[in-house]
Amino acid sequence: MEQVQIQAPQIRTLLDFPNQFYQDLLGYKPEQTSLQQIPETQWNEFATQKGLNPNSSGIYLPINQTAVIQGENPLSLFHEYFRHGLYCEQSLQGRKLVDLERKLFYIILVM
Ligand SMILES: [Zn+2]
């Protein structure tokens, strides 16, 4: 499955304006959050593999602080990347959630 990573120029363009908007509005923007875009034509396959509802259009993974969205879906970009991303970076509860997932993953690995 072809997956476009954050380093791709088109994703930087996708994030440039909203990043600047959040920076100007709040004084911060996502720094540790990664964005992964799945092409729309591959979304059903991706969602099925991951056990997601194919009618969904995005997911946020606290363990690696990654927002995965369908294509360039703007609602998913804001919901997954900015809302969940900033929650997990900027709030105490969100940071605890990231730590918890990483600890649980480690525990499962050594079991
Ligand atoms: Zn959500």
Would you write up a description of this structure?
- The radius of gyration is 15 Å and the shape is flat.
- The chain has one domain (9-110).
- The model has no long low-confidence stretch (mean pLDDT 91).
- The chain has helices spanning 9-26, 43-50, 74-90, 92-110, and strands at residues 34-38, 58-61, 66-70.
- Helix 3 packs across helix 4 (92-110).
- It has a 3-stranded mixed β-sheet with strand order 1-3-2, covered by helices on one side.
- It has 111 residues and is an alpha+beta fold.
- 56% of the residues lie in helices and 13% in strands.
- Bound molecules: zinc ion (ZN).
- Zinc ion is lined by residues 79, 84.
- Zinc ion (ZN) is lined by residues 79, 84.
Q: Kindly state the percentage of residues in helix.
A: 55-70%
Average residue-wise pLDDT: 91
Largest sheet: 3 strands, mixed
In one word, what is the shape? flat
Whole-number tally of structural domains: 1
How many angstroms does the end-to-end distance come to? 30 Å
Binned strand content? 5-15%
What series of H and E elements makes up the topology? HEHEEHH
Taking pLDDT < 50 over at least 5 consecutive residues as the criterion, the unreliable ranges are none
Rg (CA only) = 15 Å
Spell out which ligands are present: zinc ion
Question: What's the β-strand tally?
Answer: 3
Q: Structural class, please?
A: alpha+beta
